[in-house]
Amino acid sequence: MNSRADRRPNILWISFEDTNPFYGCYGDPVARTPNLDRLAADGCRWTHCFSTAGVCAPARSAVITGMYPISIGTHHMRTTHTNDATPEMPTPYSALVPHYVKCFTEYLRAAGYYCTNNAKTDYQFTPPLTAWDEIGNRAHWRSRPDPDQPFFAVFNPTRTHESGMWPEETRPSRAGLSQGETVLAEFDPAAVELPPYFPDTPKVREAMARMYSNIEHSDLFLGQLLLELEEDGLSDNTVVVHWSDHGPLPRGKRWPYDSGIHVPLIARWPGHIQAGRVSDQLVSTIDLAPTALSLAGVNIPSHMQGQAFLGPRSAPARRYVYASRDRHDEAYDMVRAVRDSRYKYIRNCRPDLPYLLWVPYHNRHPIVEEMWRLYLAGELSGPQLLMFQPRPVEELYDTQTDPHEIDNLAADPTHAEELLRLRAALDGWLSDVGDLGKLDEAQMVRRWYPGGEQPQTAPPLFIPICADSPGRELSPGGGRFEGPLVVQLHSATQGASIAYTLQSGGDARWRLYTEPLGFPPGETTLRAKAVRIGFSDSNESTATFTVGADARAGQK
To answer: What dihedral angle (degrees, nearest 10) is formed by the CA atoms of 198, 202, 208, 209?
Structure first.
């Protein structure tokens, strides 16, 4: 048994929905976040972490794959349901990513990690059976069958979702609240600092106060998880990483302004990360996947477009981070952005469109309601009118002197050099990763679903290998063999992964197939399914293998 110091670290992710760093440790004077503040004091806090998109599903597709949404076709927000008012759109569909793209947790599972997700996915595609050992509201590292097995555990409290800022009577269930539970604006609305582009009304301040209440609630949830780590004696050998997918506020969520993509990032790793460290290194949420692999000592696949910022496979610091905006619910758009540590460049590919497109869900936000009400009354002024003005083709902001991104410098000759540099950086990124946003969405989906039918993964085949059967013949139903015996699994679908189990029933534990399976003497029933992201799952294949009594034990 290796010593504790020699063991691979466990990894615990705690992600908050829709959260800018409105935390005490980030200098917010209103926030009450003692657990987050303590986590930052024990580890590192990054000041320049940014999401790849200002909305959850595209952003989370980048997190789970390490690939930019525009590169793999996950850039349009909400692909898996139909909008009643716009049935002409090509939804619903599950994004069919390139055959070599996997949920990065498969690489961790193959390396021996027990991977759990509690419980949000929202990847723009159905999570494959091979992605997680356990997924659901009860998923926990405590469920792993071997307490010495390293784990990667994800918890996704949803309390801070933007809809948690709505009044109780209009709040949907996905805000992460228990049925019948009421969240009051326990923070003093008068104490909240409003961005200059919001009107200063009681309704706006109450919404912002509810946001702080929801962050405090999630902070308590995070504190409970940290306590459970301590109770299990795992704190010293667990890397805890906290992040968010994007921001919550109008002119933030769904947009590449910093209010939309600037997110918290805090990590604690005793003995490896200096306590109280603050880093201004540029980090993108696309870097989370390769960083998890680096921490686990797993090789990072060459196709991943993110880069590790911790662990033995850390890459040199970034110069730029990138973000995109495309269709949100009913409304099409196309915006691309690049940011360095100071300047932000935004390209509006559709300058003919207004900023405020028709997105009914967005229009339910109480702050948006106030913006429209006061605009129609002619009572908005200055930066409050930004979202009601025509779009320029390009936007350039100095986030150091103008953190709210109000003064567009794109036409200012004194900033021409920065404009040219960032314009070239964006063009280079788009050339490197490809931009499926150039395709009509319906055309993209037709490529994936010929004739409108989702392709299905080919079912697993069973190939026995033993002295009398050297791996040339299939054995669909199994059979009797003299040992030693191993069985290969194979699917004809390019890029397919295979899940298998030796258990019966609907609650069987499905394992990830990575190498031929060995069987002990006696009778074993093998069940297998093949899966590929964007394809429907294969039919289940089942076979019973009987190994002669004199056979030697197999590999597994």
So the answer is: 160
Structure confidence at residue 178 (pLDDT): 44
Going by C-alpha positions, the residue among 527, 525, 474, 529 that lies closest to residue 497 is 529
Specify whether 56 is catalytic: yes
In whole angstroms, give the CA distance from residue 484 to residue 109: 26
**Within 90-197, where are the H helices?**
105-110
Q: In terms of C-beta density within 10 A (0-12 exposed, 13-18 middle, 19 or more buried), how is residue 44 classed?
A: buried
Q: CA geometry: angle at 299 spanning 43 and 490, to 5°?
A: 130
- pTM reported for the whole predicted model: 0.94
Neighbour-count burial of 455, counting CB atoms closer than 10 A to its CB (0-12 exposed, 13-18 middle, 19+ buried): middle
pLDDT of residue 80: 86
Counting DSSP H helices and E strands in the chain, the numbers are: 11, 22
Phi, psi of 268 (to 5 degrees): -125, 130
Catalytic residue among 56, 103, 115, 466: 56
Q: What is the pLDDT of residues 404-436, one digit of tens each?
A: 999 999 999 999 999 999 999 999 999 999 999
Asked if 301 and 65 touch (Cβ cutoff 8 Å), the reply is no
C-alpha pair distances (Å), 376 with each of 197, 219, 379, 388? 16, 38, 8, 11
| Residue in the structure block whose two tokens are 């949100």 | 328
Q: Is 371 helix (H, G, I), strand (E, B) or coil?
A: helix
Q: Is there a contact between 140 and 116 (Cβ–Cβ < 8 Å)?
A: yes
Check: CB of residue 215 under 8 Å from CB of residue 33: yes
31 burial type by CB count under 10 A (0-12 exposed, 13-18 middle, 19+ buried): buried
Q: Tell me how far apart the alpha carbons of residues 164 and 183 are, in angstroms, rounded to a whole number.
A: 8
Neighbours of 225 (CB within 10 A): 19
Question: Is the Cα dihedral 308, 310, 311, 317 positive or negative?
Answer: positive
